[in-house]
Structures are given as structure tokens and as C-alpha cells.
Specification:
By secondary structure, the chain is an alpha+beta fold. The protein is 21% helix and 23% strand. The structure holds 2-oxoglutaric acid (AKG).
Length: 146
């Protein structure tokens, strides 16, 4: 399905070296989305089962006047991926392309600037901590992974 862009956001505000792409998606689309991300060299994805509702109040055919209530929550999966700035648009495009059915309930993507990344095992910070062995950086360079 084609992606319709009413507005693009090329000027990131605020500017950051890393961003978290937080996508609220249909549970049955998660496998396809994560495979597609893996194929493009993205490593490091966190998923959570969540429940929520959007503008339609959790119902694709919301009756006029019906109230938002707990029973309108719909099961979704929240997928969180932290990537460097140069990967953000590609990740957003891929998720949108694979997750989109065109029907109400496809979900949303939030972009969150990240101040720093710390790898617990080594104490590495920033670029070194964000980079994953076997990931996109290794695929695009001839330098063997450290
Ligand atoms: C919403 O509450 O805005 C929805 O999109 C409901 C439809 C759904 O998520 O299945």
C-alpha cells in the first residue's frame, strides 16, 4: 500500500543523535514488521503487549455519542527501536509499509529523541553502545565487528 504523507518532518525537533521509534501496531502484524527490520539490518527491538484506544475510542465503528470506556481498549503491540538519526526515516518507512492495512486501527508511530545509550555489559556509551554486532553498521562497512 502506498504511504500518504500529509506532512513530513525532515527538521527534527529537538535534534538528537539517537531516536526511539515507538510504534503501536496490530499484534498479528508484528512478525512481519520485525522480519522486515531484521532484513534491513536493524538489531535491538523491544516489544510489549499493550491495550489502548485512539481517536475512534477503540471501535472502528464508533457510535456517535458513545463514551470512551475501559471495554473499548483494543489489544496492540508496542514496538520500541532505538536507532541513530540516519536510520530513523528508513525505519519509519519500513514499519509504515509493512504494518499498514489501510483500515482503522493500523496504529501510530511516535518519534522520541534519546539523550544517550549505555551498554550495561561494557559501559560503552553513545554510538558504540547503540551499534550492534551484525547490525546495519557492520553490513555497510568492511571493518570486522569488534
Ligand atoms: C481507535 O480507537 O482509534 C482505533 O483505531 C480502534 C480500532 C482498532 O484499534 O482496532
Amino acid at each position: 500500500l502506498p504511504i500518504v504523507r500529509a506532512q513530513s518532518s525532515p527538521d527534527y525537533t529537538p535534534d538528537a543523535q539517537f531516536y526511539k521509534v515507538e510504534a503501536i501496531l496490530r499484534p498479528w502484524r508484528i512478525q512481519q514488521v520485525s522480519s522486515a527490520l531484521l532484513k534491513m539490518g536493524i538489531r535491538g527491538v523491544t516489544v510489549s503487549d499493550v491495550r489502548g484506544f485512539g481517536a475512534q475510542g477503540g471501535s472502528p465503528e464508533r457510535q456517535a455519542g458513545s463514551e470512551f470506556s475501559e471495554d473499548k481498549f483494543v489489544a496492540k503491540v508496542k514496538m520500541e527501536i532505538v536507532v541513530s538519526k540516519d536510520q530513523v526515516e528508513a525505519v519509519i518507512d519500513k514499519i509504515s509499509e509493512v504494518a499498514r492495512t489501510g483500515e482503522i486501527g493500523d496504529g501510530k508511530i511516535f518519534l522520541v529523541p534519546i539523550s544517550d545509550v549505555i551498554r550495561v555489559r561494557t559501559g560503552e556509551r553513545g554510538e558504540l553502545a547503540e551499534r550492534m554486532t551484525g547490525g546495519r553498521t557492520d553490513m555497510s562497512t568492511t571493518t570486522p565487528p569488534a
